[in-house]
C-alpha cells in the first residue's frame, strides 16, 4: 500500500495526502488490490507461477546469509543452472544500493518522473510503513486486511 502511494507521486503533479490515500485505497477506487493479489495467488494451482517476495530477499541479505538462495529458486523454477561467478554478478547487480544507482532500474533518466517527489526506488527496507501509518490507520488497515485475506493461504511479511 505504501509503495502504491509513493510510486505515482513521482509521475504526477496531483497529490494526495497520506490520510486521504488510506481512505481511497480502502474504498477501492481503482479496483481491489486484494482481488488482484489473490487472483494471481490462485493461478499457482493451475499455472507454473513462482512467487518471490522482496521481504524474503531483504531478510536473507540483512541476516548476512547467502542471497543466492532466492536466485537459485528462480533458476530451479526456470530449469537453469548458472555458474557461481554469474550468481555473484546477479547478487551484486540486484542489491538495492546498486539498483538505486542504475538508471535502467531506477528510472533516473526518465524525464516524466520527479525523483524529488518520490524516487522509484525509495528506501529498500522492510517495515517503513510504520513511518506513514498512524495507530488508527494501522488498526483500520489490519482489520480490512484480515477480512479481505481470510480466504487465502497467502501471507505477507510486514516486519523486519
UniProtKB/TrEMBL annotation:
GO molecular function: sulfotransferase activity
One Pfam assignment: Sulfotransfer_1
Keywords: Membrane, Transferase, Transmembrane, Transmembrane helix
Residue spans crossing the bilayer: 16-34
Endpoints of the signal sequence: none
Highest taxon above the source species: Eukaryota
Enzyme class name: transferase
Sulfotransferase domain sequence ranges: 20-152
Keyword Transferase applies: yes
Tagged with keyword Cytoplasm: no
InterPro entries in the cross-refs: P-loop_NTPase, Sulfotransferase_dom
Enzyme Commission code: 2.8.2.-
Family (UniProt): Belongs to the sulfotransferase 1 family.
Name of this chain's protein: Sulfotransferase
Amino acid at each position: 500500500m505504501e509503495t502504491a502511494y509513493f510510486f505515482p507521486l513521482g509521475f504526477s503533479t496531483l497529490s494526495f495526502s497520506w490520510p486521504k490515500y488510506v481512505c481511497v485505497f480502502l474504498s477501492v477506487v481503482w479496483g481491489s488490490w486484494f482481488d488482484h493479489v489473490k487472483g494471481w495467488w490462485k493461478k499457482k494451482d493451475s499455472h507454473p507461477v513462482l512467487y518471490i517476495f522482496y521481504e524474503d530477499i531483504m531478510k536473507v541479505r540483512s541476516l548476512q546469509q547467502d542471497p543466492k538462495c532466492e536466485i537459485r529458486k528462480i533458476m530451479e523454477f526456470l530449469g537453469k543452472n548458472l555458474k557461481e561467478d554469474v550468481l555473484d554478478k546477479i547478487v551484486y547487480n540486484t542489491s538495492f544500493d546498486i539498483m538505486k544507482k542504475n538508471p535502467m532500474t531506477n528510472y533516473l533518466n526518465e524525464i516524466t518522473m520527479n525523483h524529488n517527489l518520490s524516487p522509484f526506488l525509495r528506501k529498500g527496507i522492510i517495515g517503513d510503513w510504520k513511518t506513514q501509518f498512524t495507530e488508527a490507520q494501522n488498526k483500520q488497515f489490519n482489520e480490512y486486511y484480515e477480512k479481505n485475506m481470510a480466504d487465502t493461504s497467502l501471507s505477507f511479511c510486514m516486519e523486519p
